[in-house]
Structures
1.
Amino acid sequence: MKKHIILLLVTLLTQTVFSQNFEFTIEGKQLTVVEKYDSGKKKAVSNYIGKKLESVNENNFQSAVDSKQIKLHGEFIKYYENGQIKLRSSYKKGTQDYSIQEMYTSNGEKIFTICDVMPKYKDGQQALFETISAKVKSHPKVSAMGVVFVSFIIDKEGRVTEVECLRGLNTEIDSIAVEAVKGLGLFTPAMQQGKSVNCAYNLPIRFEK
């Protein structure tokens, strides 16, 4: 009888729900979410805690995160589609521990966030903002106003790579911001201990009438 009770308890505490691009597993008081590429390979693995874990699914997952019904807690890993780790970090009740963070390029090279010499746009900081502003203003009829934060990597040769929207407004605006950054020219690469290195860069882009 006791064996049956223990088996039932384990079944209740461990629940896995599959969908096309997400896998939700609840063990005890922790939710593990595996996001997948269309190819089926892992895109990200994140861990959450919260009061309504059992009701989280692919349809309400983002709203549960935005409303803070569930919070990141534990290890968070993002992957490139080739299987290489893109980002590894750690959270405690929704707060990131920046002392535990690793970033890599798609071929496994380390990406720095703070360097001895940070990257600089070759034509100067003013030219950087003017270039972005001109690209944004070439789309005068936009559906929203506000700031889009775009993240990208400046590689060891000073090229802009791996551009993505970090926090946006909507699909149309976010796409314009990403394309504006992709069109930037060369940067002077970051330097660490006398060597050029890959460096992460975040850029706020304002949309206004």
Note: Residues 1-14 have pLDDT under 50 and may be disordered.
2.
Amino acid sequence: MIRILCCTATFLLISCASTPRFAERGEKGSGERRSTVQTERPIQQNSGKILLTLEGIASYYANDFHGKQTSDGEIFDMNALTAAHRTFPFGTKVRVTNLENNKTVIVRVNDRGPFKEGRMMDLSMGAAKEIDLIRTGTARVRLEVLEWGNGQ
């Protein structure tokens, strides 16, 4: 019963709506972006080192957003180890594992997205390189929340 309550509370906390990634009209690649229903599924939650584990599809973003403001207000550096997630609080640290090759990277959430249906996280190009995601563009991944951010 306690485990069910903890799971429910966690999902309520991470499901708050947030603003989309910053982009001005007319900028190349900005297009119309709409938030979609999340397709990620919870695997486990515990009180140990890993706070939440999810599996789904990740992609990456780079040149079109490099140097532009992210949703948390910082300037996007495509070579940094950062990521976009629709609901995780800004500053959340997540270990991302490419399930096709078991390579991992730890990223910090500083943006909102992805806005393409069926994807659960957008990695910076730097993070995507670490787990060999560049060639394929997308991959099945495991997300392990290591530390919740404070949203600032």
Note: The first helix runs from residue 2 to 14.
